[in-house]
Amino acid sequence: MTERPTVSVIIVNWNGAEHLRLCLPSLASQSFELLEIIVVDNRSSDDSADVVRSFGVRWLPLELNLGLAPGLNRGATMASGDLLLFVNNDMRFDRGFVAALVEPFERDQEIFATDGMQFNWDGTLPAHMASRLTNAPRGRDSPTELVPGLHFYQEMNTEKSSVFMASAACMMVRRTFFEELGGFDSRLPLGYEDVEICWRAWVRGRKTLYVPSAICWHRIGASIRSLEAARFGFRGVLKGRLLLATKLLPARYAFRTWLISLAGLAKDLGRRRWNFAADRIGVLLHMAGLLPQLLREKRAMFKNAHRSPEEQLDFLLRLTQDASGPTNAIK
After folding, report:
1. Are 205 and 163 in contact (CB under 8 A)?
2. Chunked in runs of 10, what are the mean pLDDT values of the chain (331 residues)?
3. What count of other Cβ atoms lies within 10 Å of the Cβ of residue 191?
4. Dihedral (C-alpha) 247, 163, 153, 126: value to the nearest 10 degrees?
5. 7-218 to CATH, choices 2.60.40.10, 3.40.50.300, 3.60.15.10, 3.90.550.10
6. d(CA 304, CA 201)
7. Structural domain spans, the chain
8. Cβ distance 159 to 329 under 8 Å?
9. pTM for the complete prediction?
């Protein structure tokens, strides 16, 4: 980039008026000035529209609640920035947050995404740091299962470093690469959209970089406290696991993910979680219908990249293994 890039901030909102009252002022007060803010609304029934208009930012109401990834994609289509910043509505940001995420793009033209450091709301605990992928979770603090047999964990890191994914709650992307990738996979309503797009970017050799000086605070889980939201999140995560494993991972991970997801139905029924059992059946049937399409996409993607899913997974696992080495640290 020969000139300072412009940034468009995209927030997907659903009944988040109270969150927006804190989120929008912290974005408006950023030290980086070449900034526009777009709020994409998933059919809110509260006074979100009035809050957004009171701050003078752009408002995009959707005809239906499309979920997170489709909403972010809709916001991206109306954005004017060279860089797109995707954030959640239940967050606030350090004044230098945007500037810190922008800086690496100006130095390295192969970067797809930069990722910030999230603290919990009162700043007492780190909630999201450098995301590391591993197939050997023992000895790690609180690893999270990505799919059966693969885990990730958050590593404290004081330097910029390459990571396998960025969080969609504080993720900046280069617009041209985002468009090349076709945006987030719109079949993912909530969950895994950030892992999936960063994985596809790495397949093309586009980097994701963790920037610890980009600091924000996140009211974790504030948007999924109702039963309706919990069920929406459950369906989203299940779809995400199945899509990621089928579309991007070696076949053994796909087989295991489908098998365990099917076995989960028996657990739902045994615990008399009738609503979640019905949701699971619906997701499994829907994703089974997508299997031929996902497998075609997988073959084409890896053929064009001249590598296999196994080779790509090995590469991303090495990012973790080499995390403390000089080749992975970016000063």
Report:
1. no
2. 86 96 97 96 95 95 92 97 97 98 97 97 94 82 88 93 96 98 94 97 97 95 67 91 98 97 93 92 97 98 97 95 52 31
3. 24
4. -130
5. 3.90.550.10
6. 13
7. 7-218, 227-308
8. yes
9. 0.93
